[in-house]
Amino acid sequence: METLTIAPTLPMTAPATSTFVDMAAEIGRLICRDAIWQGPRCNFLTSTNDPQFEYPKPYFKSLEADFYAGSAGVAYFLAALYHATGDRLIRKTALGTLHNALATSRRIPATAQLGFFSGWTGIAYAAIRAGRWLSDEAVLSEGQRLLTDIVNLDLHRVGIDVIDGAAGAIPALIQLEREQDSPPLRSFIIRLADQLVSRAEQSAEGCSWNTIPNSGYRNLTGLAHGTAGITNALFEAFALTGNATYRETAFEGLRYENSFFDQQQQNWPDFRMENQPRQHDASKGITGPACSCSWCHGAPGIALARLRGYELTGLAALRAEAETGIQTTARQLTWEHQQNFSLCHGLAGNADVLLEAADIFYLPDWRQQAEAIGQLRQERYQKTGLWANGLYNEYQIPDFMLGLSGTGYFCLRLANPAVYRSVLMLR
Fold it and tell me: pLDDT tens, 394-403?
């Protein structure tokens, strides 16, 4: 059975006037075709780039259990797609993938178990949401049981950023706590927020967090691994508990991040790139620190955190900062800037930021620009036969944050963002 698809010379059938749900359904059928089954469980092959090479050189492996690049994220998309279409094959594959994610979740290392994108929180969230979309009580119950295990994790062994740790887990756990009113879960969320406060590093610029020990980087700005993601979690914890310490620490984190804001680029520096040449555009007279522009690092993710901060606090300063980040994101929402459609560091992720901004600020122009990216993706697919992924290789990988599942879920977001909510900023 063919399980990993390289782009064909000619594009597969894709009607030029297909709706966004039609696009999602085509992607879902492609994923289902490549499922590898054993009993009631199924999994998929994916490619990843060999770190020994400076250029993208893929090797192949089976999906692990996580949400970011594993079976939980694939199952989440397929369950949402079943909810949108009622396709029975989609439902069967969603359940098989969920069973696999839940069965293999224990293999996740202790240091990543808390994470939404890397660990149990994302798997539990996917199982609970998908269990409802699929009307499957067994999967729902398995997700809730995993939630009980999360509450008992040793916080000395877990991370603090959005990908691996507390900053990503807090918003998801708050959503789930509101749905089931669990005192142990609420207590655990408070412990996570207290941990973020206790690990803040104070400097003249404000508070920041060392999320990548021994890296040699200055404490990062940005959402996935930086200050923006942690301040967002603290604002969420403040909204839940009213504890002013969380709010004040979040403001100190904003002060740190904003102290490095580059006025010319209207962006925040990516300190992972400090040793690279400074950005220079002679035609515009721009020279400054190296900046990224994606969900994980740079203006789009920082804009999301400011958007949510404004939504929770109503502070005009946060709205202004969000608008700055959104405008930078919108200016760079072109194929020339990001030649892939992934959610993590591609056009779909940046367009998703505009969808959230359109919802919170009631500005339809940003929604229209996001929809234009959906159309561009379809046009490129018709031309090349490839849904360009976040690994920049020519394989149709099933992953959520880098590949097909995230691309398909973004189609559902474009069709109905009120029902299929963003996972780039849980709110």
Answer: 788 999 999 9
